[in-house]
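Request: Give me one sample?
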Amino acid sequence: MNKSVYDSPDNTSVSKRHILTVLVDNEPGVLARVIGMFSGRGYNIESLNVAEVSNDEHLSRITIVTEGTSEVVSQIEKQLLRIVPVHSVSNLDEEGSSVEAEVALVNIDLNETNKKKVYEVCDFYRARKIEIVRSGPVAISTHKNTEEE
């Protein structure tokens, strides 16, 4: 029996993973302000990526993976829009299907003694050889794609 004087909702929203993209000005301190909003309110960040998207307009995209109910994520979006250098906030879960990729870039000093073993490992993990230089290292890339619909 609930002893609170306030009614508690019978149906609780399910907490799930959300991917948010935030378009911000590319200037010092913006990332700290965005991340500070998360930590100050007790929200957890599972993954974070920042990349410049427009050199002419000095804009960057911050991609944040977080977990929460749709109400909590909606609140996060509203609070992010209040930060001055934020231009837009998009929830990729609401925009339809998305593609995620995990990429590892590995530099290996390739020589005649380890060449065969390196290629065997590349074949085993379905890695792609990016650049082969006779006297220098070889860059190997492996990735894992997941598509959500």
